[in-house]
Amino acid sequence: MFELRQRFYFEAAHTLSRAIGTDASRRIHGHTYHAEVVVYGEADPVTGMLLDLGGLREKLEIARALLDHRFLDEVEGLGPATLENLSRFIWNTLQPSLPQLLSVSVSRGASGDTCLYRGTSGASASGT
Length: 128
Fold this sequence. Notes:
The chain contains 3 helices and 4 strands, in the order βαβααββ. It is α+β, with helices and mostly antiparallel strands.
């Protein structure tokens, strides 16, 4: 089996209610997020590719457009803009058209935080 990885980034603002760092988190603030999508499977014997990277990039651009330069508090179906919810949101956006999807990770390089999500086939947009 092969694993193919593709990365993209998006910049967005949000607020967040939390127990630690409450003042800064509750104010509108932004981050540069980096997402990595992993697909898996066997390579096609004719093309030699698991997936055409051009087609994969087109699918990722759909997810990116939903998040890039947005106020994440207003993105329908996301919930609180945590790394966990962002990872699952990207999974739920991509999985219906990308059955080879294995995982989605979202990170904030400036703070060193990363979350990896491995969903299940047919996961709904609400994460249930």
